Amino acid sequence: MSVEAAITTPPQPDAPATSRLFAETALVRKKYRRELIAKCFFGAMAAAMVIPLILIVTYIVVQGAPSLSWEFLRTNPRLGGIRGGIWSAVVGTIYIVTISLCVSAPIGVLSAVYLNEYAKESWFTRIVNLAVVNLAGVPSIVHGLFGLGAFVYAAGMGKSILAASLTLSIMTLPVIIASTKEALAAVPVPFREACWNVGATRWQTIRRIVLPNSISGILTGVILQVSRTAGETAPVMLTGVATFKAVDGTGLLLYNPLTDQCMALSMHLYYIATQASGAAPSLPYAIATVLLCVVLLVNATAILVRGYLRSRKKW
Amino acid sequence: MATKRRPFEVIAERLIELLIKLCGISAIIFVFGIFFFVFREGAPFLAKLKVGEFLFSSEWFPTSQTQAKYGVGALIVGTLSVTILAMVIAVPFGLGAAVFVSEFCTGKVKESLKVIIELLAAIPSVVWGFVGLSVMSPIIINTFHVPIGVNMFNGAMLLALMSVPIMVSIGEDALKAVPDSYREAALALGSTKWQTVYRVLLPAAKNGLLAAVLLGVGRAIGETMAVLMATGHSVRIPDSIFDPVRTLTATIAAELGETSKGSDHYQVLFLIGILLFTITFIVNLAADLAVKGIKKQ
What we know:
Structural class of chain A: mainly alpha
Largest sheet of chain A: 2 strands, antiparallel
Number of helices of chain B: 13
CATH architecture of the largest domain in chain A: Orthogonal Bundle
CATH class of chain B: Mainly Alpha
Largest sheet of chain B: 2 strands, antiparallel
Largest interface: A-B, 88 and 87 residues
Oligomer: heterodimer
Radius of gyration of chain A: 29 Å
Strand order of the largest sheet of chain B: 1-2
Strand content of chain B: under 5%
CATH superfamily of the largest domain in chain A: MetI-like
Number of helices of chain A: 14
Strand content of chain A: under 5%
Number of domains of chain A: 2
Order of helices and strands of chain B: HHHEEHHHHHHHHHH
CATH architecture of chain B: Orthogonal Bundle
Number of domains of chain B: 1
Number of strands of chain A: 2
CATH class of the largest domain in chain A: Mainly Alpha
């Protein structure tokens, strides 16, 4: 058909000109079909992450349910850990988490303050940032070797709660640095300028203006550090956590943090699941349930705190 | 007229600034400290060490009374094979999920997906190892009819699940960093979302996505407890993905407790630590350079 013929040919009587103009061609239909396929495909990829999480958590909780009770939580383990409860492991985890938090929170926050408020764009700052990234990337077992070489032997602490906590505090430092840095960077520069203009020094500005305005990020980092510390196993098994330790009483003051080794939930799970024989089949599931509950609840708290404080933000 | 600051305040300010600077460089101190102290424990063995034999021989008989041999070749192959298999599984899922979270969903769905990814990342590695040992192992035996359930495939599945969250979050950041004007231009030309993703966003964000993958690799190489519990314990070069293998990390964790301080075996384990430190250092450096690449554009 020639061009003239195409122009002069009247439209088909059963199809008005406009609808024919905007009708979906095969190409467009193909385009939308592909769009739908792509969306479903990527959605399936995302769902493939959600489903294992739910399945695994449910399975562990269901399997562990027969052993779980308040008594289980509050009694000390007996017979090398295969009978009784898990109280001394819970206390050990609390000790390790608390001490390492006390060490890494101040260092981490101040380190982030340095990186965000003091450091200039330079090769040195870049190296510091690179060191933070690498500290986060060092395998946990290498942190354990470091703790063993530095704290247990070189510093003469022996295998103790203190050595294990210090090892973990260095390992989790990047968690606090990263989230604090992000929070500090979110505080608008004019806030600082206004403060400097009324004569405040740099530190006064940071203490009165910058830190209070970035508390949500700092808190999130601290909470995430807690959850990370509670679940870590490899570094503490080399530096101060025993597979089994008999203790007296069921209070909170079971160990001397400077000299004693302790039990910890994560290590207890590893030991019961792989090496102990004769334990009830539901026991490792029950320990895993407690550990999962602690970690997931702490993380959920972090998410809620962040959401709440973000909603209250005034800028 | 400016009022003078009291001397106490000036000194306090100086002190606190000094403290902040000290903390600021603490990360560097710690990284060097890790290298120094791990190296110090392993160093005496360097004199006796033949590097070629150490790296490439797969004869690992550390406890032999007469002729102890320390070849980590099989362990390196074990680490690499588990990591590669894990990445084959994790990269499509991780990047696919990152694209879905970043481009295909909005509002509540997006928020809840991000929360779930964060929770997935929070599950401790010892719990993953336990899952591999007592949940996945029987499933693998029954599905694939293989004699041993704790093997390379099991470990790789766990590592994939563990490294997907970091890929999703870094990958999503990389996609978010692409300017919206790119998306608007693509949409204005009549392209669908998929076409935008495929033709515009993926090429534009490729460095960030590469960094996401590299960080996932770093995570997988350094993972200890999951592979210790779920990949079996045979030090040999695997023939199939259902063979049990042993990784570098698992070897340290499994054997260090049985060695006495200062023995050859003990020192070799610390040298393996230095090897791991070096590998992850290079991987992280590469990821960092990839990210810096985007920022320069």
